[in-house]
Amino acid sequence: MTLPTGFSRDAVGLPREAVEPFARLDRRGFLRFAGALAAAGVLPSGCRGVPSELNPPGGVDLQVLSPRSYATFQAVAMRCVGPRGAGAIRARRIDPASAADALVARLPALAGPLVQALWVLEWGVAPLVAKWRPFTALDGAGQDRVLEDLMRSRLDLKRDLFKGLKSLSMLSFYSDPASRAQVGYPGALDASGIVAAMTYEPGV
Amino acid sequence: MSESLRCDAVVVGSGAGGAPVAMALAEAGLDVVVLEAGARFETRDFSGEEGEMIARLMTANTARDSGMEVYAGACVGGSTVVNDALCWRPPPEILESWRRDFGLVGLSDAAFAPHVDRAWRTVNASPTDREHLNRNAHQLEVGAARLGWSAEAMHRNVRGCANLGLCNLGCPSGAKRSALVTWVPDAEARGARVVPLARADRIEVADGGVRAVQATRLDPRTRQPVAALRVEADVVCVAAGVLGTPALLLRSGLGAGTALGRGIQFHSSVYVTARFREPVLGFYGPTMAYAVTEWSDVNGHRGSGFMLENVTVAPSVTASSLPGFGAEHERVMEALPYLARAVVVLRDRTRGSIAIEGDGPPALSYQPVAEDLTRIREAVKQLARLYLAAGASEVYLPVNGVAAVRSEADLAALDAVEFEPRALSLLYAVHLFGGAAMGGSREQGFCDESGRAFDVAGLYVTDAAALPSNTGANPQITIMANALRIAAGIAAARGARRSEEEGAR
């Protein structure tokens, strides 16, 4: 079985668990509404008021995410991966937002929905998103409550939002070799050695 | 910029349903061109890095109504490059059902047998020995034995497996006998031309027969269109996947009055994860190898229709599929070497459909029926019971908001959960069937039992889209065998026509 024709061809190039929740979000009116608000300049894209640990580091050349959506993604990832993982992100040993930015940069059709989803999470308020302040301005417990509300919602749209952001957070975090020590994963068994051996050309 | 080619037969797709056809037709002396929308990689390109390989080799779609996710390969070799190398012969109950329920009276066991044998040999489907049953598989074996359930090691299409645990990320050792290293080079050795990054857009039909395939060449980096390609041929074999094949046919304006786009079935799947007190190292060794067949309803079993199969514990996919988030999720992930993981492979009763919306991805509709959701719940429970019997200290169910299970009594919590697709941490399918199926009539399918479209001469469907139902077992051998069977018919018909033409001269 292969899929050369029309089968989510726009989705080629993204991890599987990450792709589709965002593709669904693209069809959701409330996200388009958020996008329209952002496009109208109602929602800021800068990082004013955002904790410095969430800001993109100097020298990072973001392709899709704005500094604000970078910070929002980083905040989501820190809550999703748990406290030790959050520490690695805070210490800049792992940068899931940059990884996610690089992934969706290869896929314009999904870049917009991701950015919109992050806008909704950052700027959405109750009853849509269970908060009254920007997501990045909440403390950890407050952010967890928002994510719990999305995860347990009876609204498909909110659960899609949660699944999409969680999946991309997990994939971008655990694909980073720096995460391996934390979970006891030694890396692909000799894969690099196998590849090296198979591409080795003996001298004459 | 545009380009044109001329050949005897165009094959759209290079996976399990396309590559064997290309080989067989080339072997019969036809000039064959294979169009593949994905890129071509070689074994040396497979790094084993999870994120990179998933991104480069796979694609996905989602059912709009249920949110169910479906995944497939998107490269030369198709899903055979990213599958888990499992091989089952076509279950006899399935062939019987196709004859009885779909009017495919010619699909006898004998008609399939030589093609099954050839597929089996070509990909080197082999028993999995003890050396290649990792501890992840062993936990299933132990649990099933303690509960008295039927179970077995599955056959795998490998030669010289190095136990890397990377079957589904493109095997870096080349041990997995995917289409990329079997049918495709075999076809090329017989003169077939494989054109990667060439997306078929439409099939041209005139005077009741196929004339050409219109395609678009794609940029290898951006996947954006770079040139038009038109390939003229009198025979077109469509093997673009269960969503791609019906979509291509619908975009071509074909199938009016037939069942095109309808009747799609999955093997719905969910993961269950368990923690053991001793290391399992489920990320090494064959990604899948062992099946609990107690509830299977094929191959002589009389269960309610699902199998339980061990599956890799690679970190990214494990993290994405575990329920919940935060500290509890991290606690589970930090025990990764101690985790075992298995997947439910359900023989769905649900039927779905696809439609097209402009040039966008196919719109998939697949809303699991209540019976399927009930059986998924039952399968999850039984898998949790098995892991507990095998000695697991905790079992993690694929339901957001449900706590880890430590005893059978805890499983009662599952009964209180509203069991519907979006409540699950991940409900997905990688085995898809139908949509342009063979049938005894236009109402039942798009093509007859020879794979030929009812209304278009020279047009064939040769991949899983041609299969009228799911199979209850990992389907690559069934798909390959059916493709070879259809190709043999095409070659025979062409030979007969040539003989007639020569006789007339």
Tell me the layout of helices and strands.
The complex is a heterodimer of chains A (204) and B (505).
Chain A: H1 16-25, H2 29-39, H3 67-81, H4 83-90, H5 96-105, H6 108-123, H7 140-152, H8 156-174, H9 180-183, H10 191-199
Helix pairs in contact in A: 1-6, 1-8, 2-6, 3-4, 3-5, 3-8, 5-8, 7-8
Chain B: E1 2-6, E2 9-12, H1 19-27, E3 32-35, H2 50-57, E4 58-62, E5 69-73, H3 79-82, E6 86-87, H4 92-102, H5 109-122, E7 125-126, H6 135-147, E8 151-153, E9 155-157, H7 183-189, E10 193-195, E11 198-206, E12 209-218, E13 225-232, E14 235-238, H8 244-251, E15 262-268, E16 271-275, E17 290-292, E18 306-310, H9 315-321, H10 327-333, E19 339-347, E20 352-355, E21 363-365, H11 370-390, E22 394-396, E23 428-429, E24 432-433, E25 459-461, H12 476-504
Parallel strand pairs in B: 1-13, 2-3, 2-14, 3-10, 5-23, 14-25
Antiparallel strand pairs in B: 4-5, 6-9, 7-9, 8-17, 11-12, 12-13, 15-19, 15-20, 15-24, 16-19, 16-22, 17-18, 18-19, 20-21
Helix pairs in contact in B: 1-7, 1-12, 5-12, 6-11
CATH-defined architecture of chain B: 3-Layer(bba) Sandwich
Count up the domains of chain B: 1
Measured distance between first and last alpha carbons of chain B: 41 Å
Q: Strand portion of chain A, in percent?
A: under 5%
**Fraction in helix of chain A:** 55-70%
What's the level 1 CATH class of chain B? Alpha Beta
Task: Point out poorly predicted stretches of chain A.
Answer: 1-19, 26-30, 37-41
- The structural class of chain A is mainly alpha
Order of helices and strands of chain A: HHHHHHHHHH
The count of domains of chain A is: 1
Distance between the termini of chain A: 42 Å
Largest sheet features of chain A: none
Unreliable runs of chain B, pLDDT <50, ≥5 residues? none
- Major pleated sheet of chain B: 10 strands, antiparallel
